[in-house]
Amino acid sequence: MIRIWTRMFLLLVTVTGTQTVSAQWYQVEMIVFEHVNPVFDGEDWYRDPGLVPLTSTVRPVYYVNLPPPPPPLAVEGVLPVQDSEPMIPYRILPASRHRLQGVYQTLRQSRDYRPKYHIAWLQPGQDGSRALALHLQQDDSGSLFELTMPPALVSDPMPTGFYEPVKLLLDGTVRIRSASLLYVDLDMVLFRTPASDSVVIPEQVTDPQLTGSMVPEKPAEYVRLTESRRVRLNDLQYFDHPRFGVILQV
Fold first, then answer.
1. The whole model's pTM is what?
2. 31 alpha carbon, distance to own chain's centre
3. How far apart are CA 116 and CA 174, in angstroms?
4. Do the Cβ atoms of 147 and 159 come closer than 8 Å?
5. What gap in Å lies between CA 70 and CA 55, rounded to an integer?
6. Which of 108, 133, 168, 181 would you call most buried, defined as having the most Cβ atoms within 10 angstroms of its Cβ?
7. What is the pLDDT along the chain (250 residues), one digit of tens a residue?
8. What's the CA angle centered on 33, arms 32 and 36, to 5 degrees?
């Protein structure tokens, strides 16, 4: 009889714990940074790593897109109560809500790292089979309207050929899976930029079909970091790649 009650108690604790974690909301914060002097150590920079799959993904909800909260109801003799902020899944938080500003500033002041992206969002806990991944992108929006010739030589309206296209710098997904434990599935792609091009990368590789002779080959346009791991609340998680790294906290 004692064994039966023990098993039932353990089962109840397991089920209750799973449901509690799944019902919780999490603040997720991520910093992506680039290595100034990367050590490839045999990394195949020329191999195409493939792009990030976008199945079961969701786009972020930015803070500026939130509707204004309704005015509080005024009741005679009772002070109005302001509603708390809406719990919108995958809502991007303003910088004032960031908890890793100290880490970001440390990276900025370092000679070895260059922070590229800092973002935080809210999301509910989701079971592994139903968890959605947040699709994040960063582009060089400053290049969208960057003129390729002096403005004095450009007619009005300006031809579209005088504009440079937006360059994608970062593309990837972050999935938070919750059951009795928390897991993070990270899949990030970092594209080459003029800054990364300044790093000395060998432009020749060995072609086995030419008996070991060296032939020129253009390096890949991007690198990819893919990893899944168990995480603990409030712990800093470091995902490493020879070209860049990711610091993440749930």
1. 0.69
2. 7
3. 16
4. no
5. 35
6. 133
7. 444 444 433 433 333 333 344 468 999 999 999 998 877 666 666 677 888 999 999 999 986 555 555 665 555 555 554 445 678 999 999 999 999 999 999 999 999 999 999 999 999 999 888 899 999 998 875 443 333 444 444 444 545 454 455 577 899 999 999 878 999 999 999 987 655 554 444 444 455 554 454 544 566 788 899 999 999 999 999 999 888 999 999 9
8. 165
